[in-house]
TrEMBL record:
Lineage, opening ranks: Bacteria, Pseudomonadati, Pseudomonadota, Alphaproteobacteria, Hyphomicrobiales
Protein name: Putative metal-sulfur cluster biosynthesis protein YuaD
MOSC domain segment(s): 26-183
Single GO MF annotation: pyridoxal phosphate binding
InterPro entries: MoCF_Sase_C, MOSC_domain, Pyrv_Knase-like_insert_dom_sf
Pfam families: MOSC (PF03473)
Length: 194
């Protein structure tokens, strides 16, 4: 079995976003308040959520733990998605970002269980990769009305670059420009076929 030791990194919060409306589209804000329910006032806040297409093992609408309280993307990966779509830039809020991280290579590959520590004492726990969907692509399509290929093209362009989802392990305030400390736990790569 392949074993990897614990790792520690630092990065920066380049931008923060709040989805204060009835959907996931978010707008840039200078700070966010994190509670055990997620981002205070955000569309995805809550200790629980209803299952959907991402959980085919449950009947749609089943109440379950909300492990998707916070959506994180990276500046570098959003730039690659924009390049793949042949657009100048992508507003991360259009695809539901809450936090835009800068300076952590291969951000979307950060493994589950990783912790992100903020100067205020707030801590996020990574649940895992946030696979791209055509709903986010449709929201992005609205910025490029002349391009009918964006909605479905986003799914392919964002493959392995869509960022991560997390839940709040410890409440606190998060601010634009915060330096974050990232702790990746020791890993053993599981492969039953070995």
């Amino acid at each position: 079995m392949t074993k990897l030791p614990a790792q520690k990194f630092t990065a920066e919060i380049a931008d923060l976003f709040l989805a204060a409306g009835d959907d996931f589209i978010s707008a840039s804000v200078p700070e966010l308040e994190l509670s055990f329910e997620g981002i205070v006032g955000d569309h995805h806040a809550g200790l629980t959520r209803k299952s959907g297409g991402r959980e085919p093992w449950y009947k749609r609408g089943t109440e379950m733990r909300n492990e998707r309280q916070v959506s994180l993307l990276s500046v570098e990966e959003v730039a690659i998605i924009a390049e793949r779509l042949d657009v100048e830039q992508i507003d991360a809020g259009r695809i539901g970002a809450n936090m835009l991280v800068q300076g952590l290579p291969q951000f979307s590959q950060v493994p589950p269980r990783t912790q992100i520590f903020f100067p205020s004492g707030a801590v996020l726990r990574i649940d895992g990769y946030n696979a791209p969907c055509k709903i986010a692509g449709a929201a992005l399509q609205a910025d490029y009305e002349a391009r009918e290929d964006i909605e479905l093209g986003f799914v392919k362009a964002a493959e392995e670059l869509r960022g991560l989802v997390a839940w709040v392990e410890r409440p606190g305030i998060v601010r634009q420009g915060d330096e974050i400390k990232v702790r990746v736990w020791p890993q053993q790569l599981y492969n039953q076929r070995v």
